[in-house]
Automatic annotation (TrEMBL):
NCBIfam families: BH0509_fam (NF033562). This is BH0509 family protein. It comes from the Bacteria.
């Protein structure tokens, strides 16, 4: 993941107030991608 993409996802997660900066700074890229997907990505099942 590019640094720009990581910063964008970190910003979104911080705004959601699910994690603090210390927790996020210790996460790997796949962890950040997972939590961003978990909290921000829509699924077709969300609309059923």
């Amino acid at each position: 993941m590019s640094q720009l993409a990581r910063e964008s996802k970190v910003k979104d997660l911080l705004a959601k107030q699910k994690f603090n900066e210390k927790e996020i700074s210790e996460m790997t890229d796949p962890q950040i991608e997972y939590y961003h997907w978990l909290y921000f990505e829509d699924s077709i099942y969300d609309y059923m």
